[in-house]
Specification:
186 residues; alpha/beta; Rossmann fold; 7-stranded mixed beta sheet; 6 helices; 37% helix; 22% strand; globular; EC 3.1.1.29; Pept_tRNA_hydro
Length: 186
């Protein structure tokens, strides 16, 4: 089984914000297959499905970004998953809007959602898909920037990165993550 986790914040208030780009990828994937995410016992919205014989679980933690690990750890235990079975999708200030980067491990880079996952899962070694949201052009505080919608200029690039990210997730269902990294990081 593989688990694809999109990070974000629950509620309409945050739905179209930069911080919710992980949720947007999960919505894109679910939409491709007409899958419905439902509230689960792991404090998230999820669905467990199968594609070409590969079981895949899509998850949107409903704990708010900074507590994402509180949803992921119990789910991993229940389904007896290892960190290698998980792909976490999240926003990255250090990448320009529309760029994506896949990695097999790393630190939290100041991202509180990733920090929570590392703390709860107990390792830095899990697959990640970072989606660029860029940095604020002004003196706007980062916390305000990530909780605002994408600018008009960013929207086309971000839409493209959401589609490309969903494509990478589909590829991971069929290939080793290292191959997917080579295909999508070029």
């Amino acid at each position: 089984m593989k688990c694809i986790v999109g990070l974000g914040n629950p509620g309409k208030k945050y739905a179209k914000t930069r911080h919710n780009v992980g949720f947007m990828v999960i919505d894109e994937l679910a939409g491709r297959y007409n899958w419905k995410l439902k509230k689960d016992k792991f404090n998230g919205k999820s669905t467990l499905e199968s594609i070409d014989g590969q079981k895949v679980l899509l998850l949107q933690p409903q704990t708010f970004m900074n507590l994402s690990g509180e949803s992921i750890r119990p789910l991993m235990s229940f389904y007896q998953m290892t960190p290698e079975d998980i792909l976490v999708i999240f926003d990255d200030l250090d990448l320009p809007a529309g760029k994506i980067r896949l990695r097999q491990k790393g630190g939290h880079g100041g991202h509180n959602g990733i920090r929570s996952i590392i703390d709860h899962v107990g390792t830095k070694e899990f697959n990640r898909l970072r989606i660029g949201i860029g940095r604020p052009d002004t003196s706007m505080p980062v916390v305000d920037y990530v909780l605002k919608p994408f600018s008009k200029a960013q929207q086309e690039h971000v839409r493209s990165s959401i589609v490309k990210s969903a494509d990478a997730c589909e590829a991971w269902m069929q290939k080793p993550f290292a191959e997917v990294m080579n295909d999508f990081n070029s």
